[in-house]
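Model it.
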Amino acid sequence: MKNVSRKSLRKKFIRKYKKRGFTLIELIIVISIIAIVSAIAVPKYNGIQKDAKIKSDVASAKVIADATYALIAKEGITKATYISAKPLGDEIKAYIQVTPTVKAVTGGTFLVEIDPTDNVFVTVAGEELYPTQSEDYPSVTAPVTTP
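Modeled.
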């Protein structure tokens, strides 16, 4: 009987004072798994962000081109105004109500050009976004100065 009581007392003592938690090896394994996952995820997130900015600029260029075409049709703008690439004028800004900003190129500006056959071209930092996006956009990563 004494043996049984000693064993039960010992088990109770061990249960009461036994430390609960993770071992150092378990913590190191978890931390290394988190590090590996973050090393994979962070670059992909940055790439996704860059692609989103580029797509935003292309969509903004299409809006600017559509507004320019509409103003040409309404005779609210003349092609002589934009015979060479120039920043958005007040008539285009008023027509689209909210002036889009360039996201992919720091300090970039949308430039509009209308050729003699009424074709509209929208560029940023020398790269054409409308009607067809340049393969290199954004090729300029440093701040761009506009003329």
